[in-house]
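Field reference: sequence -> structure
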Amino acid sequence: MNKKIMEHGHEILASKNYDSMKDFIQHGSISVHEHCLRVAEMSLKINEKLKKINIRLNERAIVRGALLHDYFLYDWHDKTARHKLHGFYHPGVALSNAEKEFGLTDRERDIISKHMFPLTITKIPRYREAWVVSAADKWCSVVETVRMRKKRYNEDGQELKPGA
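Structure field:
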């Protein structure tokens, strides 16, 4: 695991609730836990690129916000009425859960609550850190979803049977 993720996110990663995200699938076979780690890593890579052009961001907020952006703690694939509009509502649920357990800065709150922009069109990110995590989340989601599809279909477009 990335040293900076451990440095800034050790309190989050040590949480039993956070560990429970390993039991919920995000995309394909990727858990919500793994997805959040990937988003944190990608956000740090983007941050490094921005440093090279003299754009300085709050690294701690990026890591913590990325780790907590999907801290909703339920299986969103369960199609009950509560989860049908998951894309619109989970940022608020994640923020509420994170606030109960961790002390958050305004930047971290902005990252968590606005990471689904532009789907949540009225929730426009205020801080550059939120834009970075939102972009990293979209990139990781696409990669995870494409990988999922790749594993389910062969090169001829035939669906693979489990274990094939």
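Note: The first helix runs from residue 3 to 13.
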